[in-house]
């Protein structure tokens, strides 16, 4: 239920005392911790009076963070003087110039104080602390997971469970078809292609939509989500005049030449990396044709190299995104994820597409798909499982023993979007090339079972993230839908071009391609009709949830307001404490009464609307 602020050696005692005094007026309790033999100290912030019903501290963390980010340097003259003195001592800006003075004044007036202190390396990371609930191990149900980590983590594990359950169906079908001897190879391929395409098209609109609505009904407690600026980027962002002006006072357009130039440089370097990936494919084909090497050995080596090439590109994509100077987490994530998606499409799909539609080598395609699925799943599982289990062992020994701020700062941050990216690439691979290798669905299913456990261990061994209330963002929903359509298109045209059964029915390639286009559009139309037929969450539960949602949000507002009003006076006597408890009881009764009245009102409005329609 606490938020930790890492204090660098530049933090002076006078500035720290003024800062703590202002935070106390916000109703926050401040505890300063100085670990032995460490230059970094920690300021632990929490509400003096915890919010009632906040078992896992999610609302308290949001309230504490909101109070922390509401402090500005010009709020108290003494605080402003202390900040200016400290900045002048450690600044890298020539304060003798008018530009330097204006820039500093703008930052002090328009930026939260915590950001100004981060800018000058006086304050480090700001992160929520784990509670003792984490020591108990993994949570038993999604509600506890959601209440502790926020909706985004809960929805991720909900989506992973849906994806794994749906994948179990194709794994069973693939196992049966793979070991069925009375069916011809083309017949197996056609059956798996149709089932896989329908499975992929219905996964998001049937499986995930219904599961997400079910989770919403279980949680039914909307919580606010604070938008956090990337603390790691403050030095890079605010050292640049254009980006600093865009962030602080909006005096520079986002189309500023310097900002556009960085993005163009990033795009050029990304294009060069894609060309390098294609060059690796051409070199592999040249080696196989020129030298007498076993094709299976070449395919295995090439598949392993591509797996490690993907890992290397992650660091390269992160560096490219950093030079673009994105301000907030969401834009940074979308930019980095887009680069990795583009590279993975080239790295994973271009080689088999080249073999299928350019050189028309179906036997090599089948061998490449078999090796690709096997090596990618095995290498990915090993490279993820071994570090995760070792980190878990070290975490148990070093970090969880005393649950200190210093130990939690050393914990790694879990990047949730990388897990979504891994599932999206796997989904596209299965839909596109899975029918050629039915056992691939079994490998993917086993991999996801292991992934579920590894993700839970990584989450439990990572720094506690800020609770966020988004489900799967629209960006990732679009990514999954696009990957399914992309994979389904490849699947259909592979069947049209290389299936001998279809070729015997019509030898004309033009006619078969026309059938493929019609079949692809038919699958898209089926998906659209299914999406229309399934009622969305706001259609089947919004009327029932709205009064509860409003009352829950009101309860949070009242709790934060009461904490803000009461906590500047921590020395209240027993009489005042009794009065506060009575007021809380009255507030809870008022909220319950408001929910009942809203329910009655919503029920009364519907008959009135029906009568108006009849008239």
From TrEMBL:
Superkingdom classification of source: Eukaryota
Entry's Gene Ontology cellular component terms: cortical endoplasmic reticulum; membrane
Keyword Transmembrane helix: yes
InterPro entries: Anoctamin, Anoctamin_TM
Annotated compartments: Membrane
Ranges where the Anoctamin transmembrane domain occurs: 147-544
Keywords: Membrane, Transmembrane, Transmembrane helix
TM regions (residue ranges): 153-177, 189-209, 264-285, 341-360, 427-450, 471-497, 517-535
Main location: membrane
Recorded GO MF terms: chloride channel activity
Pfam family, one: Anoctamin
Membrane-topology descriptor: Multi-pass membrane protein
Keyword Transmembrane helix in record: yes
Protein name: Anoctamin transmembrane domain-containing protein
